[in-house]
Amino acid sequence: MEQSQMSRPTGGWRKSSWSNGDGGHCLEVMDGCPNIPVRDSKAPNRAHLAFSTDAWSHFISAVKDGTV
Length: 68
Description:
Helix content: 10-25%
Largest sheet: 4 strands, antiparallel
Radius of gyration: 13 Å
Distance between the termini: 28 Å
Shape: globular
Strand order of the largest sheet: 1-2-3-4
Structural class: alpha+beta
C-alpha cells in the first residue's frame, strides 16, 4: 500500500546520534510531529515508520539498556 502525500511528514529530518559515520545503520527521525516518523537515511524516498511518543520512548530506553 502506498502512503499518501498527506500522511507524510513535512518537517526536516535529522540523523540519530546513534547512527554510525560509515554509511551504515543510519536512522533519521523528525521532531515536532504527533507521532515520531523514522526512516532509513540510505533510502529517504521509501516509506517511513511512525511511532507513538510512548512507543518511541520505550524503544529508545531499550536501545540504551541493550535489551534490543
